[in-house]
Amino acid sequence: MSKILIADDEKEISEMIGTSLRRSGYEVFSALDGKTAIETAKCENPDVILLDLRFPKPGLDGIEILTAIREFNKEVKVILTSGLGAEAKEIEQAQGLGISKFLPKPLDIAQLKETLREMVGNNTA
Which CATH class is domain 3-116? Predict the structure, then answer.
């Protein structure tokens, strides 16, 4: 069973995505802040991290989280997400840190599941 870490400060969105992915056979972990995202990535060694670019301050943003994760895991696949306000400069910076894909918010769950199938295979239970 593939492990997915959802790192997003919006609890409702995280729960909705998590429920849908669990129904599709994925093991899902959630983190509502940067520190928890980094700790969970270290402890659980997910196959894919769904990482929001924007987190409220004070705290780490998506680029800072990704930078920290890359220090101990250069191979994990990362899907970066963001709504309005994502700057091309930030997305380009994330690409330099090795994101696998960028998906705009609001997320299309079918597109997310297809992306995950391409990355880690079909987990449908």
Answer: alpha beta
The model's confidence at residue 124, banded by pLDDT at 50, 70 and 90, is: low
Average pLDDT over residues 38-45: 98
Contact of 38 with 69, CB cutoff 8 Å: yes
Q: What is the per-residue pLDDT for 86?
A: 62
- Domain assignments of the chain as residue spans, ordered by start: 3-116
45-72: average pLDDT: 95
**What is the average per-residue pLDDT within 19-45?**
97
> Cβ(38)–Cβ(5) under 8 Å?
no
First to last CA, the chain: 9
